[in-house]
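Researcher: Next sequence.
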Amino acid sequence: MAHDHGHHQNQHRRDRPVHEHGHDHGHLDWAEMAPLLEAQAELYTPLYRQAMTWLAGEVTEPGLVVDVGSGPGVVSCLFAGTFPGARVVAADGAGPLLERARERAARIGAGDRFGTLTGDLPGVLGELDYPADLMWASQSLHHLGDQRAALAALAGHLAPGGTLAVLEGGLPARFLPRDLGIGRPGLQARMHAVEEDRFAEMRASLPGSVADAEDWPAMLTAAGLKHTGTRSFLLDLPAPVTDEARAYVITWLSRLRDRVGDGLDAVDRATLDRLLDPGDEASVHRRRDVFVLAAHTVYTAQRPS
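Model: Next structure:
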């Protein structure tokens, strides 16, 4: 089946659920990023489990599941658990992350039915030994310039009757109340607005970028598939959060400050600095009102039999 093909090492346009919108992914050290990526995917596992329960009711037992843009394989391994009779292939542009995926699969006892493909997406999928019964693409397509062409390419690697599940969109994650008691209310909404602009700039700068309405059912239909469902899934971790969730929020805010801080005014930057100062009583290190609330949308489509 598919093994790790190390000769494909062009790692540009990599995307993970860490929402590095507007950032230059080509210069990231993926081995260094792996623990953060794993921590986020593990935190979001309740949401992914909901999505997989839904998918399990939508598809017949698949023989081959392909995770397109798998990162370190947390979700790939959840698929291995959801479909114990399936072979799972994690495909990604970053070899160090796929090493982690193989290690994780071995730890859960799925190593004998777990493979990896290293290389640019979607082209590396041409190295699959046979078509996929279920293909999962979570926030990876929006880092490809021509999303319609990418969907058509993915559709070409589906078995007749196979299903493509695309996780894109949903709602921005929220971690803090509107009024923090410091600075101006609405800080996170303003950060999201700057991030939306950066995301649009990122999309426009991609090689072969095509501006397109992100109507995923229409794009799936244009790729020759039959749109079969749309469903959104909620991650609701209310305050007080676990240490793991708090650490994720701290990391997320810190990375967001690096990416969009120059797009905020001085008052908001000062508020963000206080939120990230471990010595400040108002910081996310100490606040009891930190939470995690997010929604992701999954679109499914089937290749005609």
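Model: Confidence is low (pLDDT under 50) at residues 1-26. The first helix runs from residue 30 to 43.
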